[in-house]
Amino acid sequence: MAGRRPGRPATRREILEAARDVFAEEGYDRASVRAIARQAGVDPALVYHYFDGKPALFVELLELARDPRAVMEAAAAVSGPGRGARVVTGFLQAWEDGDPTPGTRFRTVIQAVCTSPEAATALREFLTERVWSRSLPSDDRSSVRARRASIASQLFGVAFQRYVLLVEPYASASIDEVAALVGPVIDQLHGEMPQSDLDAMEAVVGLDEQR
Amino acid sequence: MAGRRPGRPATRREILEAARDVFAEEGYDRASVRAIARQAGVDPALVYHYFDGKPALFVELLELARDPRAVMEAAAAVSGPGRGARVVTGFLQAWEDGDPTPGTRFRTVIQAVCTSPEAATALREFLTERVWSRSLPSDDRSSVRARRASIASQLFGVAFQRYVLLVEPYASASIDEVAALVGPVIDQLHGEMPQSDLDAMEAVVGLDEQR
Predict the structure, then answer these.
(1) How far apart are the CA of B63 and the nearest CA of chain A, in angstroms?
(2) pLDDT band, very low/low/confident/very high, at A34 (cuts 50, 70, 90)
């Protein structure tokens, strides 16, 4: 593949695009900073000048897509029917926008975090520190955190069926169709639960704080 | 590592155990039938005698754990409060029983299906043909299939947070604690939804049948 175009310095973005290509082709585990530098047509030292190694490149790539905070901010701001569908639409668009073959970016990220504990840590910190905590900082009750975790689980499981397992109708449906299918489930998870269930959930989430 | 003990033929199970070790160590993508045969102390031809290649070995490994149908049968048979918690318990036990380091088997499977389309197909067929259709054959309404998909998404997302991302409280909690946290969510997903939401879901699931 082509490296850097002659006559101007490689930008940070060109290194990121090279990293995206090499991660997708080789998998996170096998991708080396040296191979990423070669793809970008620069010296490996320049990669280290911009980024603190492979996990940092990996996290930056997550941000190359549409800012995921926008999805959660939309979810927090809007209420009433239709909120769930908008969350689903935003979540899937964040994975698919600019992805030449929809699903490649998701598969690359998941494969990376299953293979490398450092990539898993990077993604966990990205989600908890940059997405969850900034977009929904005002309500830190355990029951709210438990609901949030169940919505995250739901979105993640749907993406896994759509992009990896290719389960129908998730795999072939348009984003709008998936939003129509999964939106009501998200709304339901946002909705009311019996107080006894919430108490049980609070008890478990509270354990985390004592650990 | 040790190969086959001398004096008796390698069993099918010994080949499977070798495959499990090699998949976990090398990743599905890099694991070769030759390496699996070497680990089991047999000729590669014997591996092909028992199994129709790597995807077949992969599916057999999924069954090495507690039969996952048991989980879904329990879910179908039991109703009322507490059902969700039992489903969660069965699902997590199926992944953790006999796993030397809980989470290794899950990470190996997910890494395999993200890397290899043939492994993804094998897992999808295993889930749809052997788990879902046999355990819950009697009700094929689209709305029931849509709920089932949302429960599968939820379980999968929780496992991902517990075994891969190591998100608290899922990561450090006992199976019973996770069941207390996620069970009510599963019960809620089994429960009542407004008819208008069910109609919207049916419309999308119905598309699948026309494709």
Answers:
(1) 18
(2) very high
Residue A187 lies in a domain: yes
Q: Could you give the CA distance from residue A77 to residue A81 in angstroms, rounded to a whole number?
A: 13
Q: Could you read off the pLDDT of B152-167 as tens digits, one per residue?
A: 889 999 999 999 999 8
**CATH number of residue A51's parent domain:** 1.10.10.60
Q: How many CA atoms lie within 13 A of B66 on its CB side?
A: 15
Q: What CA–CA distance (Å, rounded) separates B111 from B120?
A: 10
Of A41-45, A105-109, B79-83, least confident by mean pLDDT is: B79-83
Q: For residue B155, give every residue at least 6 positions away whose Cβ sits within 8 Å of its Cβ, in sequence order, or none.
A: A157, B87, B88, B91, B182, B186
Write out chain A residues lying below 8 Å of B155, CB-based.
Answer: 157
Q: Which long-range contacts (CB under 8 A, 24 or more apart) does B148-152 make?
A: B149/A161, B149/A167, B149/A170, B150/A154, B150/A182, B150/A185, B150/B189, B151/B75, B151/B87, B151/B186, B151/B189, B151/B190, B152/A157, B152/A161, B152/B127
Angle at B163 between CA B159 and CA B166, to 5 degrees: 110
> Are B181 and A197 an interchain contact pair (Cβ–Cβ within 8 Å)?
no
The alpha-carbon gap from A58 to the nearest alpha carbon of chain B, in Å, equals 15
What are the C-alpha distances in Å from B17 to residues B65, B120, B146? 12, 21, 36
With respect to residue A200, please indicate whether it lies within any of the assigned structural domains. no
Looking at residue A26, the DSSP 8-state letter turns out to be H
- A158: which chain B residues are within 8 Å (Cβ-Cβ)? 153
Within a domain: B96:
yes
- pLDDT for B73 equals 59
- What's the domain range around B51? 12-61
- Do residues B135 and B112 share a domain? yes
Helix boundaries (H) for chain B: 12-26, 33-40, 44-50, 54-64, 68-77, 83-96, 104-115, 117-125, 133-135, 142-160, 175-190, 195-210
- CA dist B53 and A96 (Å) reads 33
Distance CA B159, CA B107 (A): 10
Closest CA to A98 of A56, A147, A63: A63
Residue B55 lies in a domain: yes
Query: For the packed helices A68-77 and A83-96, what is the interaxial angle rounded to 10 degrees?
Result: 180
